[in-house]
Amino acid sequence: MKFRTTAASAITASALFLAPATAVAHSDQAAPAISAETVRTLTETMSSDEFEGRAPGTAGGEMTVALLAERFEAAGLQPGNNGSWFQEVPLVSITADPETASFSYTADGETTELAYGSEVVIGTRRVVPELAIEDAELVFVGYGINAPERGWNDYEGVDMTNRIAVILVNDPDFESPASEGLFDGRAMTYYGRWTYKYEEATRQGAAGAIIVHDTAPASYGWNVVESSWSGPQLNMDAADNHMSRVPIEGWMTNDAARAMLAAAGQDLDALSAAARESGFSAVPLGITGSASVENAIERQSSRNVIAVLPGSTRPDEYVIHTAHWDHLGRCTPAPDGDDICNGAIDNATGTAGLVALAEAHAAAGPAERSLVFLAVTAEESGLLGSVYYAANPVFPLAQTAGGINMDGLNVNGETNNVVVVGYGKSELETYLARAAAAQGRVVEPEPTPEAGYFFRSDHFALARPGVPMIYAEGGEDLVNGGPEAGAAAAADYRANRYHGPKDEFDPNWNWDGAIQDLELYYAVGRELADSDDWPNWNPDAEFRAARDASRPASD
């Protein structure tokens, strides 16, 4: 997960029995209460030290999937994968030895070695025991974007063979005050994601790709990069051992990049300003970089957990609910020596919420369509579990009416608002608006579209092949404390807990907000499951064409 906010929402006892917004068309029965006990106890269990951070391929990961299957079965659901609760996801783990991993640059005959961890993190997706590149020219390629449909190519006229791309995070419109522009203004496009930047560097034939970290456009500090990119790195296993990938991938701190560019006679601020302008040309730096890694390789399998509540009248049509169960396992230690990234908020809460939703739907009885509950693995490694499911769907994507993703639940109390990540993309927002209005809440766009959260959780993997997905959560306008208190709670989480060892269970959390949001998700999911609608992406959404191709009849 790439956490947006922890500010949450609560609900009164009477509102726990909120009916879906249009459920009266099918039933006037009130919705069952969402179990706060389920959400609290499962979050506490899965984020305990015993589960060691729930890394895929570890004992803690196996404990997690076994627990989820047990709870889905106890709720009265059925195994979702042809009689099995599990979908095997083939993975490969690559761990760069931090003692030997190195990156250096040479300018005017003087070589500068950057400190692994504190100044640079590097690795490779290629499944090889060791890899090195030597004296490859460094080229500043701005934002590393090749977008012909927008008339933009940062690689125009540059041969990247045996060259290392130095790339800015986010996209050229990052500082725009509006959400309109060549790259959607303030709202990040996929061109701003680090995943895209490595993919494009691969297409350009580069020898390496190093992203320059900056807290504001990245939306997280260097501590998150260091924690997330050191230690075992998971990838989907592949027959070609990922040998087509760019050889070296990595990040460097802003200060390290600034010094490196100065050694080349360049200024980071001036280059960054130039990179934001149309017509920017890549700048060969006239200095060289060298990098090497020695890897421990382990092929392993992790598992998605799939449960289903078959539909009563149209069981071959589906509404899907997703949440990722994994986290980082053992990671960079905190000052007190704690090295378990427990992932309590991210995403033990969302996974516990998935179980609580399943319990509530099972208690209500079958909807007309089948309800699918998918707990995916390896989200923290690049949405691998959801990408695998999208490529190998148990339930046909063309027959999946839509879905709801949960990535971090509220633990700070009720809110007056609901925010949609990727606001304006999907017709599912009309369902959400009805359910939120029934709760007395307003639906708003996410406050930080420049952070690119839409591309950073599992709904994105299903959206790309066309399935309408919604990712919404309680906003920062706390009923008790207002926007200031909510913003402070979110900022504290990002700075002190996100992707670190201090994302731990707190017995003082207020679960009212989590329940309110789960009630919202229940209402949306139940309405869609009891309807014969086929919502789509809005006409200007990038996923509309894929959905239209999969359901050309628009029935």
Written description of the protein model:
The protein is of the alpha/beta class. It has 2 domains: 331 residues, Zn peptidases (Aminopeptidase); 204 residues, Glucose Oxidase, domain 1 (3-Layer(bba) Sandwich). The protein is built from 14 helices and 22 strands. It has a 15-stranded mixed beta sheet that branches. Strands 20-19-22 form a 3-stranded mixed beta sheet. Strands 7-8 form a two-stranded antiparallel sheet. The longest helix is centred in the middle third of the chain and has 21 residues. The two termini are 34 Å apart. The N terminus is likely disordered.
Could you list some keywords that capture this structure?
555 residues; Aminopeptidase; Glucose Oxidase, domain 1; 14 helices; 28% helix; 24% strand; disordered N terminus
